[in-house]
Design a protein that fits this description.
mainly beta; five-stranded antiparallel β-sheet; 137 residues
Length: 137
């Protein structure tokens, strides 16, 4: 196996006021975290203003039933009809629009430095617009 040395990307935390923003799902990443498989969903702010196009991430477990955060989030993104036994293709939620509520946390990096970073704590339907995207297999 060969491993190529690459330049380290500079980490720049996103810190915006704790508010409600109109957003679109920009990326979905599966990652094993402390409590199991999780989804990190990146929401790009679409409303005009100084925070336009900033990406704020939210974390949810990769578990799907009618009591999970993931279920509530995808419902807010426009999914209304997923049934028991059906599967959700997480890549298919890219491009879904919604509103997000953000909250700022103090975080600590690997070198012990403390910084502020915004995160998505709740997803709400986008008022006046219906999502039309395919998500069920």
């Amino acid at each position: 196996m060969e491993i190529e040395m690459r330049e380290c990307k500079k980490f720049e935390p996103v810190c915006i006021p704790d508010e409600v923003y109109s957003a679109v799902v920009a990326h979905v990443e599966e990652r094993e975290l402390k409590y199991g498989m999780s989804l990190i969903i990146g929401f790009s702010i679409i409303q005009p203003g100084e925070h336009h196009a900033k990406i704020v991430e939210g974390i949810t477990s990769a578990s799907l039933n009618d009591k999970t955060k993931l279920y509530n989030w995808i419902q807010a993104m426009g999914l209304k009809d997923i049934k028991i036994g059906e599967k959700l293709n997480t890549e298919s939620i890219k491009g879904a629009t919604c509103r997000i509520i953000t909250e700022t946390d103090n975080r600590t990096d690997q070198e012990g430095r403390v910084f502020k970073q915004s995160k998505v704590v709740k997803v709400l339907p986008l008022v006046g617009k219906e999502n039309k995207w395919k998500n069920i297999k």
